[in-house]
Amino acid sequence: MTFPTAPAPDVEWTKLGLAVTDMVNGHIESTYSVEEGKWTAPKFIEDPYLRVHGLSTALNYGQQVYEGLKAYRTQSGKIQIFRPAFHAARMQHSADVVSIPPVPIDHFIAAVNAAVVGFPPYESGAALYIRPVLFGSSGHLALTPPSEYTLCVYVQPFSSYHGTAPLPAVTLEEFDRAAPKGTGHAKIGGNYAPVMKWSKHAMKAGFPMTLHLDSKTGEDIDEFSTSGFMGVKITQQEGGAEQVVLVVPKSDNIINSVTSDSLMAIGKGLDYQVEHRTVKYAELSTFSEVMAVGTAACLVPIRSITHQSRGDYFVYTTEGAAGPVCQKLYAELTSLQRGDREDSLKWCHEV
Ligand code: COI
């Protein structure tokens, strides 16, 4: 198996965004046969393209799930992946939703480890984005689970999805991302593709970020299309001291965000209060900061949130920079991911 080589020279690591580059020449693959009941050893395929049956359940019925993880090179040259076991467990959850057999946690981590090559150097601040994708791969026309599944792991060097400058957001009113009792909690492609045309419209109208409210009442905050939601409230304690409160939506219709989970734990360590609960739309006016948080997004400060039909426009910053809580959380999370501070919670997995 090939393991991390020296970083490629002449790459503008900080300008990569989330673009797919041809710097990575293949992917890791492992298959599962229902008859044999086991996964094959992960192997490197020197080709980014896949050989999949055209009548596969993935292509025809959307029997597919994916994950997104990040890995960094530390200052001392080691390579570490952020919370792979959390991602593995989340993939098992998503797989169950679309009747795919679970990938054992150790197998997932072995496949991810094997994919990790071509690392951005420490100084660049760039990361390796890891994209495991799992799907029904055999030809199968009946609406029942097929006999073969494939796990692939792709990697791409990347800097950040949305950048770090504050961005305006709009609530999506024309389209509901997740039905009540639906699949909004699973990281399946079917939750993402239908958003594309609406985010394109929103982008044209000047809103690079799109926010989903719950589809039943339109009164609760669910998540951004690409990332989780986090609000910041500042309350006054007795004696006048300010208390930072992180407010994070809890809902059956959203992805269990690794980044939100990590930031809530980091926030508690900073003596912030953390409220993980239903978050009302009406509370948008009470936040001093709002962030979009996710693996690819990292922490994106939200400049404003517009709700067109209600005529609402909530402004969180008019400066060109993130607010103080966002800056603090960003520094804490990235220093942990980059190996610059003690990993007391044992979140970083050394390759
Ligand atoms: C991630 O943050 O890893 C995701 O999968 C979100 C995707 C829209 C890029």
TrEMBL record:
InterPro entries: Aminotrans_IV (IPR001544), Aminotransferase-like (IPR036038), B_amino_transII (IPR005786), BCAT-like_C (IPR043132), BCAT-like_N (IPR043131), BCAT_family (IPR033939)
Cofactor annotation: pyridoxal 5'-phosphate
N6-(pyridoxal phosphate)lysine, modified sites: 187
Source taxon at top rank: Eukaryota
Keywords, comma-separated and alphabetical: Aminotransferase, Pyridoxal phosphate, Transferase
GO biological process, one term: branched-chain amino acid metabolic process
GO molecular function: branched-chain-amino-acid transaminase activity
PANTHER family with a match to the protein in the record: AMINO ACID AMINOTRANSFERASE (PTHR42825), BRANCHED-CHAIN-AMINO-ACID AMINOTRANSFERASE 3, CHLOROPLASTIC-RELATED (PTHR42825:SF2)
Family (UniProt): Belongs to the class-IV pyridoxal-phosphate-dependent aminotransferase family.
Protein name: Branched-chain amino acid aminotransferase II
